[in-house]
Task: structure prediction
Amino acid sequence: MKYKTISQWSDSDLTNAEHKECRTCSLAKSLMPNCKFGTPDTENIYTMKPIVAIVGRPNVGKSTFFNRLTRTKDALTDDSPGVTRDRLYGNVNSDGFEFTLIDTGGFAETDEDMFAPQIRVQINQAMEDADAVVFLLDGKSGLSPADRDMAAIIRTLSKPVFYAVNKIDDIGQESRLYDFYGLGIETLYPVSAEHGYGVNDFLDELISVLPKSVSEASEEIISVAVVGRPNAGKSSLINRMLGEERLVVSEIPGTTRGAVDSFCNRNGKAYRFVDTAGIRRKGKVSEKLEKYSVIKALKSLERCDVAVIVMDADKGVTDQDITVAGYAYERGCGCVLVLNKWDLMEKDPRIVKQYYDKVRDQAKFLSFAPTVTVSALTGMRVPKILGLVDEVYEQYVRRIGTGPLNKILEAALERTQPSMHKGKRLKFYYATQVSAKPPTFVCFVNYPEAVHFSYKRYLMNQIREGTGLDKTPIQLIFRQRTGRIEFGKKNAEQRGASGRKKKH
Result:
C-alpha cells in the first residue's frame, strides 16, 4: 500500500538519469512510465493497517501524543523544539482496532533550522502516505503564523483531517480553543498528550473514518539494526537500500536522534530497518538528548536479528567502531561489517586486504561476520548488503538435529581429548540445541566448570565446521548431567531393601 521494495540495481544502473529520478519517487503513481527497471512494489507487506500522520509546528507535543497513542516511549521527547526529524512509525490498538501512526518533525515557517527543508519533505511524504491526518496545535501558546501556513497546505488534502488542540488539561481550559476557530475550522478536539484528557473521545472520532484493516498473510520479518559512529553514513545507506529519501541526511554528526524503523520487502522477504543515532564514546556524550538517543540505539540491538555495523572507511577503523561491534556481539546479534564511503578510497586491491585484515585483527570476536566495502553515495555494492543479511539470518535461525550434532561432538572428542580435571577424565554425554536466534547448544558433562575456554572454542569451531554455521554467532553452554542416581548411604539401604523384596 505505502512502502517500496529495496532496489536491486548494479553500479552502472545507478548512473542512469531516468532511473535516478525513478529511484527517488515516493509512490507508484509518480513512477516514470519509461523506466525500464520495473515498477516498485508499493504494497505494505509489513502491515495492511490504515495509516495516520501527526503533523504540526515544533514543540506542540507531537512526540508526546505519539507515545500516548502507541503506549510506548519510542519517540524522544524534550522541551527543546526540533527533537524529531525523521518519520517514526508506531502501532496503535484501540479496543481491537489497529492502525499505524506516524510521528513527524515540526513544520517550521523559516529555514533557521538547517534541517527544515528536509523535514518538510518528510512531512509532505507522511501526509501523502496517510489515510488521515492529525494537525496538532498548541493550546498554551495559541495560534501562530506557522499554524496558518500549515493549515493552508492541509486544506489541499483530499483526506480526513483532525484538528486537535493539545495541552488542554481539563474542561476549564477549553476556552483556549476559541483562538483556533480563526482557522475557519468547524470541529476542534481538545486533548492533553501529557495527561490523556480528551484522548479517548478523539480516538473514537478518528477510528470512525479510517478504513478497515485488510487481512494479511503471516510473514516473518527480518529486523536489521544499522549502527555505527556518528556520520558514518547509516541513514544514507538505508535511503539507498529503500530507494527513497526516507531518512534525513546531513554531514553534521548527530542528525539521527531516535531509532527510526523503515519497512520494505525484496523477493517476498520482509525487512525492518532500524536507523539509529551515532554511538560516541561515553566520555564525549554529555547532552541529555544524546544520551537518550544512544540508549535507544543500544536497545535497538536487543530487538534486531542482524546488526549492520557501518564504519567510515575514509577515517579508518577506529576503537569506537570495534566498541560498537562489541555491543552487537554481546547482545547475540548476527553481524555484517560494512566499510562505507569506499568511493573516497584509493582503488587498490591491497587497500581492501589491509582494511579487512585490520577489522579481523581488532574484532577477533566477530571473525564469523562477513565484511563488505560499499558507497552509500554512489550505490557501489550496496545490494550485496541484503544478500549478506539473508545469509546471516538463514544461519541465525537454523536448527540442528540432536543426532547430527552429537556425531559432530563425538568426532571432535575423538580427534582431541579434553584435559584431565583433578586426575579425572572429563566426560561429555550428549549435546542438543535449545534455541535459535542465535543458535544455542547445551552440552552435558560431568564437570562443566572444568571445561577450559580453549577447548570450548575448539568445540564451537568444530560445530561451525560441521553444521555450516560460519556466518552467525553461536552459543555453547556446559551443564552438569542431571537425573543420575547418586548411591549414598540412604540410597544404598533403599536399594538393598528393594532387592530383598524382589527375592520374596
Remarks:
- The chain has a mean pLDDT of 76.
- The chain has 13 helices and 15 strands.
